[in-house]
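Extended Data, record HTH lysR-type domain-containing protein
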Amino acid sequence: MKRTPLPPLNSLRAAEAIGRNGTLLRTADELNVTPGAVSQQLKTLEQFLGLELFARTDKGMIPTEAGQRLLPGLSDAFTRIRDSIAAATRQDENVLTVTTGVIFAGKWLVPRLGRFRDRHPEIDIRISTDNRLTSFDRDDVDIGVRFGRGGWEGLRVHKLLEQQMLPVCAPSLKDRFREPADIARGPRIVDRLSFFAWQDWLNAAGTDEPLSGQEITFSDGYLALEAAMAGHGAMLGWPVIIQDALRNGDLIEPFKICAPTPYAYWLVSSESRWNRPTVRAFRNWIIEEVKSFASQTG
């Protein structure tokens, strides 16, 4: 049977990446080429097929009807290629790569990781502390623990634990914070990259005291937590991160006022990796750990 000729692989790769990224600039950054080179690859593919695959708009590259028919198959094909390459080159099927943020890894995951290793001594685990969005198949990452609202397109997710926000401080500051309005007067610690803002908690606590007084700002949640334990001010924390410090007496809750948030910790992985034996073992273990943690923290 005569096979239908295929267009150049690079042009297919460019089209698939444009479909995911939505712009020539982001696609060029991913493929490590210039936007002009991406545009030329797309033009080559469109000329080969005799079809327009994307409409060029002010909002980015929008797939046409033909593009919508083509892109799912391209995405699936490149995922299969990546999986095949990974399977051919992987030296040890019992290596598990987990991506998560530094503060979650340091303050929650690592202290409990010994129990996973005791249960699964055959699995070598690698922890990658990276807050950027991960392409699981491209980056050869098996599973992640991410903080957010969930609903990441094209990924399998499982909600681990919803999070509330509450102020904490070192025991040495307990007399400084006697009522919620005292938080507004400082001193306060601010994590610049946090999802939470002090004003959100103050609103939930029912105080209209304006923010004033001293603040110290960090661009890293881990440092913000260390500063809170060192007595530099009150920090707006969430249970997964501060619970062990509360239990150890390094931090206290000046008020029993927790404000709800739409955020949670989620297990995240690609469809192709979700049911791998090593991933399934980690999923089952961490879900058990989270249930135990939740029962202890109420």
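Summary. Strands lie at 54-57, 60-63, 95-100, 124-129, 143-148, 155-168, 188-191, 215-218, 234-237, 259-270.
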